[in-house]
Amino acid sequence: MKEILKATVLMAVIIAVQMVLSHVFTYHAAEVFSKVCVMALFYYYVFKAAKVHGKAAAAK
């Protein structure tokens, strides 16, 4: 549950930064930032889940 809350807060921060970047720079720069951050967050949790699953399988 803690990880879900952490991911939700990170998504809210990404959206807030995207809104600021779209006003300071262009919408395209903000969109690129947002896509890169969301993909990095996605892969972080995928690799983290794979690591936990691998440890559980090795323990059997």
Helix content: over 70%
CA-based shape: elongated
- Average per-residue pLDDT, rounded, comes to 89
Question: How large is the share of residues in beta strands?
Answer: under 5%
What does this protein look like?
The chain is mostly helical and 60 residues long. The protein has one domain (2-59). The protein is 93% helix and 0% strand. Helix 1 packs antiparallel against helix 2. The longest helix is centred in the last third of the chain and has 33 residues, at 27-59. It is elongated. The mean pLDDT is 89.
Question: How would the blueprint of this fold be written?
Answer:
Blueprint: H1 2-24, H2 27-59
Helix pairs in contact: 1-2
Q: Summary?
A:
This protein is an all-alpha fold. The protein contains two helices and no strands. Helix content is about 95%, strand content about 0%.
Short descriptors:
elongated; mainly alpha; 93% helix; 60 residues
